[in-house]
Design brief:
Radius of gyration: 20 Å
Structural class: alpha/beta
Strand order of the largest sheet: 3-2-1-4-5-6
Order of helices and strands: EHEHEHEHHEHEEHEHEHHHHHH
Number of helices: 14
Length: 293
């Protein structure tokens, strides 16, 4: 099996690293949070004391919050590329700007490092169950080399193009997810305000043309106002910024994306940033003067 350095052991990265251990890989994890590192040890992995130590591997995976963190960890002084040996396979599974991924790919190539971007969709549950959807950008030969590793993390794994393409697909994913959450939230508010049981109403929607993965997984928790973070509003706010910037770069108009981005920004401004993105329901309630407890 493969020796993998895994940098970033948060809500998504922690269970992903654990799944790689279960698949038989040797996983060396690095994170600034000691409790996260201890969780990987409990799962059968080991930990590194530095980025340099984690980079002493055949494959390095990064799972970080945003472009600045990727730039610091991968491109910065004492970062991954500074310590990487020629031939290293670097897989960045963070959700970041497409231009950052292209910069990483170019710099990696100049150091004879094979670089892929592989952002994921599926949230914490998808990470735990190893059924993530993984959208990969990079060279075909590097994608084929990464498949045995990615196969331990996801169910749908598709190379969508060259550097930057994976992040563009992830931006499209996030605008669809955000818009769907907003519409499910509006449906709940409408049903409740009309005196209709929202649980039963959403059960019907989930069995018809309105069915979605969000309705399947989240309708019960949304009706019950359970917003423990599987994917935080703060991170979705960042992702919508990536989506709107990508639209500007491509010179296309995405009006529903812009509106959804504003609703998510409102959720953050109203203090819901640490909650799950299904907490968009609270924003729609506030707009309708129907604030719940």
């Amino acid at each position: 099996m493969t020796t993998i350095g895994f940098i970033g052991l948060g809500i998504m990265g922690g269970p992903m690293a654990a799944n790689l251990v279960r698949a038989g890989h040797t996983v060396v994890g690095f994170d600034l949070d000691e409790a996260r590192k201890e969780a990987l040890v409990t799962a059968g992995g080991s930990t590194a004391g530095s980025i340099a130590e984690a980079t002493d591997a055949e494959v390095v995976i990064t799972m970080l919050p945003d472009s600045p963190q990727v730039e610091q960890v991968v491109l910065g002084p004492d970062g991954v590329l500074e310590h990487a040996k020629p031939g290293l396979l670097l897989i960045d599974m963070s959700t970041i700007r497409p231009d950052t991924s292209r910069t990483v790919a170019a710099e990696a190539a100049s150091r004879e490092v094979r670089a892929l971007e592989a952002p994921v969709s599926g949230g914490e549950k998808g990470a735990i169950d190893a059924v993530l959807s993984i959208m990969v950008g990079g060279a075909e030969e590097d994608f084929q080399a990464a498949l045995p590793v990615l196969g331990a993390l996801g169910k749908t794994i598709v190379r969508v193009g060259g550097p930057g393409a994976g992040q563009t697909v992830k931006a499209a994913n996030q605008l669809v997810v955000g818009g769907t959450y907003a519409l499910v939230a509006e449906a709940i508010v409408l049903l409740e305000a009309s005196g209709v049981d929202p649980a039963g109403g959403l059960d019907v929607l989930a069995g018809g043309l309105a069915a979605s993965r969000i309705l399947e997984l989240k309708r019960k928790s949304m009706v019950e106002r359970q917003f423990a973070p599987g994917f935080r509003i703060d991170l979705h706010h960042k992702d919508m910024g990536i989506a709107t910037a990508a639209a500007r770069e491509a010179e296309v108009s995405l009006p529903i994306t812009a509106l959804t981005a504003q609703l998510i920004a409102a959720a953050r401004a109203q203090g819901y940033g640490a909650l799950d993105h299904s907490a968009l329901l609270k924003v729609i309630e506030n707009l309708s003067g129907r604030t719940s407890a």
